[in-house]
Design brief:
Keywords: Metal-binding. This protein is an alpha+beta fold. Helices cover 19% and strands 36% of the residues. It is built from 5 helices and 19 strands.
């Protein structure tokens, strides 16, 4: 197997969700989060900002939730600044959207909520890399309460009607059935770097030194099965790499591990051991 790591310029692209009521879900994302329509058709809604697609909703009235399985824990929307996070908080307050939590992770500050179909959402802003907490063992992310009163003072101008340009999907966080197996796949096979473990139940992996592009946890239960085909929730997520050479490296690593891949244009698609479909694509031209 090649020793080459995953392209250090890797980022998370669009997150694709299978939803029962796409119109209801889309209205939530437009009104509560400020996403805008990018394109779509009768069964698919594409949402994002003026400069990027972030979320794709695939309508399927037969899709049903599958609790206690692997799948999406949350997807995380990264805003450009602390003021943008404060404006997101103000928008959520003004639309009476409940928060499930608000945390200071040292590397970032984050708000947590769910959409109408119970898909987990994080909205966050990153601190400068020089501010990230570290120990002799490496990165030391934490979960402390976030001071919402102090955050709202950073709002400045009134909340924008839409999410600002420069907003991206920063990471995805997945339920897995076995943490060591997840680390072996995402690090040893795909080529991410392990950034931090949280006890024996969670790990965070990334490319290029970011705090994490993918979170992995066993909080749905050790040995949790994958969701049934067509279940509501995560359909797939994208990893974007810089060029076709980076795709070829990943394809070779997956092939050496006997992981089947499907060609999608200049990219590939594959399934991790826990039933998550990943599409590894080049950056849009």
């Amino acid at each position: 197997m090649s020793a080459a790591r995953l392209d250090p310029r890797t980022r998370v692209g669009s997150v694709h969700l299978r939803v029962r009521e796409p119109d209801v879900a889309a209205a939530f994302y437009r009104e509560r989060l400020g996403l805008v329509d990018r394109s779509g058709d009768a069964a698919t809604v594409r949402l994002g900002t003026a400069d990027a697609e972030l979320l794709v909703l695939h309508g399927d009235p037969a899709a049903v939730p599958a609790p206690g399985t692997t799948g999406l824990y949350h997807f995380a929307i990264l805003v450009p600044s602390r003021a943008d996070l404060a404006r997101s908080l103000a928008r959520l307050a003004e639309t009476r959207t409940p928060l499930q939590g608000a945390s200071d992770h040292g590397v970032s500050e984050a708000l947590y909520l769910v959409d109408p179909e119970r898909n987990g959402i994080e909205i966050y802003r990153d601190r400068e890399v020089s501010e990230w907490p570290r120990t002799s063992a490496g990165l030391a992310m934490k979960t402390d309460p976030l001071d919402l009163d102090a955050l709202v003072l950073e709002r400045g101008d009134p909340a924008l009607p839409v999410m600002p340009a420069g907003t991206r999907i920063g990471h995805v966080h997945l339920h897995v059935s076995e943490l060591p197996r997840a680390e072996r796949f995402y690090c040893d096979v795909l080529g991410f770097d392990l950034m931090q473990r949280l006890g024996h139940s969670a790990a965070f992996v990334s490319a290029g030194g970011y705090h994490h592009h993918v979170g992995l946890n066993t909080w749905a239960g050790d040995g949790a099965p994958p969701p049934p085909s067509g279940a509501a929730g995560l359909a797939h997520f994208e990893l974007r790499v810089s060029d076709e050479a980076a795709v070829a490296v990943a394809r070779a690593r997956l092939g050496a591990a006997k992981v089947a891949t499907e060609t999608i244009g200049a990219g590939i698609a594959f399934w991790d051991p826990f039933g998550h479909r990943v599409e590894l694509l080049t950056e849009p031209r």
